[in-house]
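Lab notebook, design round three. We kept the backbone fixed and only want residue identities now. Task for the bench partner: fill in a sequence for the structure below.
Input structure tokens:
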């Protein structure tokens, strides 16, 4: 009887001890090393996410800049410049009598300018002198027309220049700035074309007048020779 009572309490104590130990084993144990490792991993993951976000932002900014750089200039002065050049060309094409043509110039100087034949009649000399004088007057008129056309282009040139400078200053990308610069160069080329045309017209008039004066001097010598021959000297 005594041994039974001793065994039972011992079994009850062991069971109670086992029950008492179970809650203690179920508690989470804090591990500083593991916690620090987890924090570092989370920090690295967050840094990678931030890097990806910055990369996407940079790509978006680059795409926006590329779009601006490839945007075409919304202003073009080409049509206005072409109209001004065509006007100057039309005025040059209206050259009277002796045009800007090498073959025609050679033919005119071989027949109407230069030496005068002694066999020419007085009527031929008068007609030739009158025609050369008319050619000189027409050449000066042509030069004045070209000058008037060039002066008329100044207002259009000023307007185009103001628009182009404004477009260049407000350009949002490299392409727009380059296109504005190219159009400014074209504007300068148009101005140089006008100056060239004006100088050509003035030079033509002056050259024709100089040729007329030289021919008139030759004609005077012929008339003098005829006078001397008629007077028997």
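Proposed sequence:
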């Amino acid at each position: 009887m005594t041994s039974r009572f001793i065994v039972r309490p011992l079994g009850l104590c062991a069971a109670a001890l086992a029950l008492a130990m179970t809650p203690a084993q179920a508690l989470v144990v804090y591990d500083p090393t593991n916690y620090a490792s987890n924090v570092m991993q989370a920090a690295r993951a967050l840094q990678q996410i931030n890097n990806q976000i910055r990369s996407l932002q940079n790509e978006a900014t680059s795409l926006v800049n590329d779009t601006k750089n490839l945007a075409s200039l919304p202003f073009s002065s080409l049509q206005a410049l072409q109209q001004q050049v065509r006007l100057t060309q039309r005025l040059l094409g209206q050259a009277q009598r002796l045009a800007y043509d090498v073959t025609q110039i050679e033919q005119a100087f071989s027949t109407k300018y230069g030496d005068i034949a002694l066999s020419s009649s007085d009527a031929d000399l008068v007609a030739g002198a009158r025609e050369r004088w008319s050619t000189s007057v027409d050449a000066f008129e042509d030069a004045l027309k070209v000058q008037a056309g060039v002066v008329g282009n100044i207002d259009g040139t000023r307007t185009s220049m103001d628009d182009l400078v404004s477009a260049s200053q407000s350009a949002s990308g490299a392409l727009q700035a380059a296109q504005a610069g190219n159009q400014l160069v074209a504007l300068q080329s148009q101005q140089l074309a006008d100056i060239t045309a004006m100088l050509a017209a003035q030079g033509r008039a002056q050259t024709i007048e100089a040729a007329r004066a030289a021919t008139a001097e030759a004609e005077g010598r012929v008339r003098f020779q005829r006078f001397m021959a008629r007077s028997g000297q």
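Keep this in mind before ordering anything: Residues 1-7 have pLDDT under 50 and may be disordered.
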